[in-house]
Amino acid sequence: MNLLEHQGKRLLKDVGVATPEGGVAASPAEASDLAATLGGRVVVKSQVPAGKRGKAGAILFADSPPECEDVARRLLGTTVGGHRVDLVIVERAVPISHELYAAVLDDATSKGPLVLFSTAGGMDIEEVNATTPERILRLPVDIRRPLPPDAARQLLADADLPPAAVPMLVDVLVALYELYRSVDATLVEVNPLALTETSSCVALDCKVSLDPGALGRHEDLIRDLGGDQSLTETELEGAARELGLQFIELDGDVGVLANGAGLTMTTLDAVNHYGGRPADFLEIGGDAYTKATPALRLLLGRSGIRSLLVNFCGAFARTDVMTAGVVSALEELRPDIPVFFSIHGTGEDEAIRMVRERLGLEPYDLMDDAVRAAVAAAGRTASSDREVVR
Amino acid sequence: MLVTGSEPVVVQGITGRQGSFWTERMLECGTSIVAGVSPGKAGRTVAGVPVYDSVTDAASEHPLGVSVLFVPPLAAKAAALDAIGAGVPKIVLLTEHVPYHDVMEVLAEARERGTQVLGPNTAGLVVPGEASVGIMPGFATSIFRPGNVGVVSRSGSLGTLVALQIAAAGLGQSAFIGIGGDPILGTTTTDAVRILDADSRTDAVVLVGEIGGTMEEEAAAYIAGMDKPVVAFIAGRSAPPGRRMGHAGAIVTGGRGSGDSKVRALTEAGARVVDMPSQVATALAAHTSRIGPPPEP
Questions:
Q1: ω before A335 within 30° of 0 (cis)?
Q2: Which B positions 121-180 lie with beta carbon below 8 A of chain A?
Q3: Where would you tag: which of A184, A313, B42, B110 has the fewest CB atoms within 10 A of its CB?
Q4: How far apart are CA B55 and CA B61, in angstroms?
Q5: Residue A389, pLDDT above cutoff 50
């Protein structure tokens, strides 16, 4: 779960990392008021969960309250990286002498937290990592202990920094690590971390991602930040999440229902491989088969679905149990599109008999054949539709 | 890690619905389950297996080789630390959605104590004809039959499909290692491939990978130096970037973890990468003449 910049900055302030003076505005008038309070030059930043906002023109400057009002009017309501701008940050512009980069993240290689620091701040850090990885200093941390200040100091000793800045930066790294631990973050990133002309250290921008699996122990924080809606999901995806289903809306016409993340992904790949376009990722493993009816209702309610492919391979869940859920759902919903089954694994004999007897359909022996048939049927339905329209 | 039928196994969370169901299935597969753990439920039995309050208690009565955990996400850390503290050498952490910080704490402790961890979010381990630890249908002989193909998979369902294809082609498996779908894992793809490379019963390796992370690319570096043939399939190649496809690890971000980069790395390392799971068995047969029929059951 990615926080918005203003949410992340609130958390940074809580652990003592300085951020520019300012606030959030939902209207041009509010933005103008903030600019008047702050005085002087301000920066106005669109609050969307997307990177590269500067390049997208979603960050602008203003030298007076009326100009700030105008700039906010230009930003609010626009769409950046697919997200509507409902809120802007208005902050006092900071005179910068150095732009640095600092982050703490989960590292799969060391299987623990990793502190990153670079003097190449303000730039695309992935680009820096690809071209000059030596410019990024790395410090693996034992997650069972706080970040030792001495270790942070040693890390910074390898960077080309003004000596006076080092103690300040040690404090920042220790604080970022503390924040990372206290909120179960997967990433706390400050870029740029600015050294100012007045010898202070300010987080100009930040990205904080929380572990969805740990939100349960941060309910107060989530409520404070205004809920746990993923800011990137569609309306149908939101409805699916409420039901506890893993559903991703795609733009094709073959509806896909499978169990297990790996098999569901593979089913999408197979639809593509045989020339079709999947309409969704809908995973119904584990206990999700009990939600087969609402799941199928969501999927079938999506426009443009022309065939439905059900692909089960029993590992954790038994295919007969999952199939019973889906067969009941299909009996209830009676979709007017063709449905194709491929069922393998635990309980397959019973599952196949159920599909035959209750739906009058014959499951395919091979997954590939079921996929091919579903892709072909989507094409057939598509062409007959066109005939109707003509 | 691998497992034999004589290694003593403890089931943590044995009185739960999944724990008791899969205890019976694992016993069917030949697994030696000697103890179960459910805090507050000591003295009961599940499928004839005695239940203890903690692994520490169970360890005072039984030698323990492997612990398998059927515990809820927020209880997983304490349960795993109980097993590590009791000196169990191998832990299979099946639980999905364990907070990542908890996983890292467990792995840090495990590393210090020399404990091997499989998972989290894994479907477990099957050595057909010997033992099964986890939630794979190791008891289904149409899917798992003794043979000489070792399978490594992040996904249980897809791993099952691939095992089925191998069995349907008249081959069998030396082992199935489910490593798990999380971004941070106790046993990585490279670790699992290395185990199968060293296993005398394994003559060929099937690597079932996924988009996300760089584990397959790292495994490719090891595979480049292997003599045993490797056939690979990478799931999620058609997934849109930035979307998490069910598994927490399966997300393509900032140019990292794409299907193409995995396919390229594995192909360059000499693995035969197929486009569909149905091509795995054919690729195995075409790749080597060393793949014989499985021994008679």
A1: no
A2: 123, 135-137, 140, 143, 153-161, 164
A3: B42
A4: 10
A5: no
